[in-house]
């Protein structure tokens, strides 16, 4: 299973540069050192140095941890410097932030940072493919609507089968796994909602 950013020529460099710009600006705007951000996000200082220097293409899990620490969406880390009040985008322009080992993809279609924190995703799972997600910021919820095929979502060790036409709503602040256990592809539209505010992953005694 491999994480990547996108298939479009030139987009990897553009997105890597955008992430570097936003992470550095958000960190410096809060007056945080690299060590502080590392502690809050549980992302190593070395990785943060690479990200801010635009020398690496971070995984979706790493981006999610950094976004949680800042209290923003992953999309906020990817957006162009000048955003618009009305935004129309094509599927082909949406970055692929996850690629499964069997050909599946997780594509971030759009994210909002105000007035609510919301992300819209398109996930495609090849037969017998899975995606393991870490817990998100407390209060995060996920809604997964299956368009094609069927999947099983495991939340806190409990399996929840979801068929085409069904929608599963659950707390995303628990460890969860998406699996396609069938011999046919599955496609899922996912909405993630997050509460405002920064998230410090360090235990209280370490803050």
From TrEMBL:
Transmembrane segments: none annotated. InterPro entries: Cro/C1-type_HTH (IPR001387), Cupin_2 (IPR013096), Lambda_DNA-bd_dom_sf (IPR010982), RmlC-like_jellyroll (IPR014710), RmlC_Cupin_sf (IPR011051), TransReg_Diox_bact_type (IPR050807). This is Transcriptional regulator. One of its GO terms (molecular function) is DNA binding. Keywords: DNA-binding, Transcription, Transcription regulation. The keyword DNA-binding applies. PANTHER family: HTH-TYPE TRANSCRIPTIONAL REGULATOR, HTH-TYPE TRANSCRIPTIONAL REGULATOR SUTR. It comes from the Bacteria. The keyword Protein biosynthesis does not apply. GO terms for cellular component: cytosol. Pfam families: Cupin_2, HTH_3. Residues 23-77 form the HTH cro/C1-type domain.
